[in-house]
Amino acid sequence: MSSSARASSPDGTVKKTDALGTAEEPNTLKGYGSVPGVIDEVTRVVDHKAERRLCRKFDYRLLPILAVMYLFNALDKGNLGNAETDGMSKDLNFKPNEYNLLLSIFFVPFVIFAPPFSMLGKKFSPARVLPILMFSFGSFTMLSSAAYNFSGMFALRWFLGMSEAAFFPLVIYYLTTFYRRGELARRLAVFYAASNIANAFSGLIAFGVFQIKGSHIPNWRYLFIIEGGVTVLFAIFAFFYLPRSAAEAKFLSEEEKALAFHRIQVDSSAVVNEEFSFREALGIFKHPTTYVFLCIEICLGVPLQGVALFLPQIVGGLGYPTVKTNLYTVAPNVTGAVMLLVLAFSSDWSKLRSPFIVLGFLLTFSGFMIYASIDDVQGDIQVAYFATFMMTWGTSAPSVMLSTWYNNNIAHEGRRVLLTSIGVPLANLMGLVSSNLFRKQDAPKYTPALISVAAFGATGACLTASLALYMWLDNKRRDRSDGVKIRARDIPTERMRDGPASAEFRWFL
């Protein structure tokens, strides 16, 4: 085997290239080849300054745009609750439980359409499909301002769930085509922190909009118009701004493009820009670890959605008035974003994922159990309020780490995007479970719900630790078989296309 690798050209054909070159410039930056059984520095780049400069360019050019896109995604998803506080149900003559039905129906198309839309994104490039999805959910948000009955709002929430379904999975896949496996967690954390910021300040935005005086239409309609309109405008900008790939990025020189290709070829994808094959992508379900990852997503989704949907009610149990209750939810959400960044940067620095996922689950478990164990939360208000901080710390970090973990262990691009498009919506679907755990008859403390959510956190920690132990033992077995100790980050991903079936495969812990 030579040091050549395969790469898809823009026309979809697969060409052979040098390990550090492009299909058009096969001799660029040569000299990093490897042969089977020999692990040299092929997964590393000698010119670290050039690599850091390249990463900074990606950081400055991609992350701010994607973060703003996800900010609007979170706002357009969650503004229904803000509209409800301004009398939307009364204005539209909702019957009992119809508002809860609007919340629930969103998750059905969100789960159903995530895999097919993600596959389309893989085929036509996330750089084009993501802005189209953003334009769609921005348009449906604006149209919500024109709804005059439950049926109209119900239909719009269905289409909103469709258009948002593949957004987060496609962003994850898109970033894996620019960054190495060990660089991904902190970039995803910066991106995901936009959601925490949206949760923290969506109420403040709504408060400002609801101050409009003398309008002929209810102010909640202005909220949909303003947030949806800005989303549509930004989607148009993103469509022309985002590069389809590093090879087509106009802000990179030819040498930087060659370096970017090499980084992904040896430390992210087995075949860069590989043409999507649904049959090959389904191969991900041959691996038992896939089902463990999906079970962990379920354990993550219940506390994640529980905090996202019911943190105001949990804080409200402390006895604060309505205005202060909304205000006191800001600090836990902001510190959740900070904890996410701290754990993500630590994970990339240590090149480990599983320990930080376990830590997140344990924080979740501790936060909910501490709150549930306090008999008089108003009498012990400081400890109870601190427990709400632990809840957000625990749910923020695993959401990013888990997606990063299984993406790090899948070199096949099609299988990577398929698993992500199922796992992420599955976690969001757990909002249906959380919404049924927090029952009105258990208010204001919701003790049964708190204990149930804590149990999901504990189960997630056990599953993650067990899977990590299996991966560690399997790596040891493979090292003994090969007679050499090899780390996952030292193996070019071109050799790991078949996953665990490959003799040289090593798990990224």
Automatic annotation (TrEMBL):
MF GO annotations:
transmembrane transporter activity
- The Major facilitator superfamily (MFS) profile domain is annotated at 62-478
Ranges of Polar residues compositional bias?
1-11
- Region Disordered, annotated ranges: 1-28
**Which terms in the GO cellular component ontology are assigned?**
membrane
Location of this chain's protein in the cell: Membrane
**Entry keyword annotation includes Protein biosynthesis:** no
Q: Which UniProt keywords apply?
A: Membrane, Transmembrane, Transmembrane helix, Transport
Lipid bilayer topology: Multi-pass membrane protein
Predominant localisation class: membrane
Any transmembrane segments, and where?
58-75, 99-117, 129-150, 156-176, 188-210, 222-242, 291-315, 327-344, 356-374, 386-405, 417-438, 450-473
- What is the top-level taxon of the source organism? Eukaryota
Similarity remark: Belongs to the major facilitator superfamily.
Q: What is this protein called?
A: Major facilitator superfamily (MFS) profile domain-containing protein
Q: Which organism is it from?
A: Penicillium hordei
